[in-house]
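A.,

Following up on our hallway conversation. Structure tokens first:
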């Protein structure tokens, strides 16, 4: 889960998707259109998508489950450097949008987010090293400057953005991989790596707008 996070108000993040992955366990993801889910490329596997969930271990009436019709991993994803860690999944059929399931907007331009921008991450991963949770948790983080983040991660590139909390360990941990970094109600990042010690590194969605447009037009 999110270390230092708290349980989210049920269904307060209606764009959240849980990706059940045969080989890996699970990842986060998020709905960007009725039949499209975005996640991290490192979450690639045999995926079933669950939307409208709060407790992923319960068969909640609000849940809608979809298979994946097509996997679009970024063609230049590099698992060694984690560059271009972004993937689009086309669902087997559109979900029915309602109070529990809604897409989240993507950035409109490629501008960098100002340092200190307040954002939020949510996920179903580990709360701490050994205690897993089935319910959606959330935590607040702030955007780090590129310069400060490069001190932690020298190979930072324009497709990455950093966020964390400045005073305590409140970063996303294992289970949130692929979930969104949400700033002002817009999905600005995808949980990518560095989640064991803040700051965390996120795929910078605004760097990929042309690729996203191209894939979703196919």
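Then the amino acids I'd put at each of the 218 positions:
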């Amino acid at each position: 889960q999110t270390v230092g996070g708290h349980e989210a108000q049920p269904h307060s993040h209606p764009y959240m998707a849980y990706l059940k992955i045969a080989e890996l366990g699970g990842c986060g993801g998020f709905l960007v259109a009725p039949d499209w889910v975005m996640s991290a490329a490192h979450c690639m596997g045999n995926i079933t998508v669950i939307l409208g969930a709060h407790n992923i271990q319960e068969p909640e009436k609000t849940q809608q489950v979809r298979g994946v019709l097509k996997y679009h991993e970024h063609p230049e994803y590099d698992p060694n450097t984690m560059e271009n860690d972004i993937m689009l999944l086309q669902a087997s059929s559109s979900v029915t949008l309602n109070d529990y399931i809604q897409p989240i907007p993507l950035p409109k331009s490629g501008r960098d987010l100002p340092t200190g921008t307040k954002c939020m991450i949510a996920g179903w991963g580990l709360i701490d090293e050994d205690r897993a949770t089935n319910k959606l948790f959330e935590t607040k983080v702030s955007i780090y400057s590129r310069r400060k983040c490069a001190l932690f991660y020298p190979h930072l590139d324009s497709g990455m953005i950093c966020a964390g909390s400045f005073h305590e360990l409140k970063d996303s941990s294992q289970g949130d991989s692929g979930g969104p970094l949400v700033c002002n109600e817009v999905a600005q990042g995808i949980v990518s790596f560095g989640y064991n010690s803040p700051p965390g590194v996120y795929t910078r969605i605004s760097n990929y707008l042309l690729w996203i447009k191209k894939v979703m037009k196919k």
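Helices lie at 146-152, 209-217. Curious whether your intuition agrees with the design.

B.
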